[in-house]
Design brief:
Distance between the termini: 36 Å
Radius of gyration: 19 Å
Oligomer: single chain
Largest sheet: 6 strands, antiparallel
Structural class: mainly beta
């Protein structure tokens, strides 16, 4: 099975005529994004040559993107790295991507559903869970205990 890929940015469009691209960054910061030199986008390997902050979106140059047409062809494509390339975590920390897809249970082990997304609307992380009947609900991260194979939800937060 192929290793899980983590999206760190998306190409928002071309910048100028020389092949530079505007980026929408999903990593913690531009500095954390710069740690990586090779990305995959639409099945193509891209080598980061430079990236700089601007007033709105960072501008990047990749060795394989030579002109505006090549840059425009990658508009909307995600820049990913293998999960194994991410820094190790401290005890109690987790990557959002590791939680998506995990089953959710109550403290007594009763199945609740599956994590389908992690959102942050400004007040902290919220976990979106899909119940077996197809309906969705959200709980704050403080209401869960994340394990490697499942998430336990405080039953006080169940609807």
């Amino acid at each position: 099975m192929a290793e899980k890929r983590i999206t760190l940015a998306a190409i928002a469009g071309a910048h100028g005529i020389g092949g530079e691209v505007r980026l929408k960054i999903f990593s913690e910061s531009l500095e954390s994004f710069k740690r990586y030199k090779t990305f995959e986008a639409a099945g193509q390997s891209l080598t980061l040559e430079s990236v700089r902050e601007t007033g709105k979106m960072p501008i990047a140059r990749f060795a394989e993107i030579a002109d505006r047409n090549a840059a425009e062809a990658l508009r909307g494509k995600e820049l990913t790295v293998p999960r194994s390339a991410l820094p190790p975590l401290e005890e109690g920390e987790y990557y959002h991507a590791d939680l998506v897809g995990l089953p959710c249970v109550t403290e007594s082990g009763e199945a609740v559903g599956e994590v389908i997304a992690i959102e942050n609307f400004g007040a902290g992380d919220i976990i979106e869970i899909r119940k077996p009947d197809g309906s969705d609900f959200m709980v704050p991260v403080k209401a869960i205990t994340a394990g490697e194979t499942e998430i336990t939800i405080d039953s006080d937060f169940l609807i």
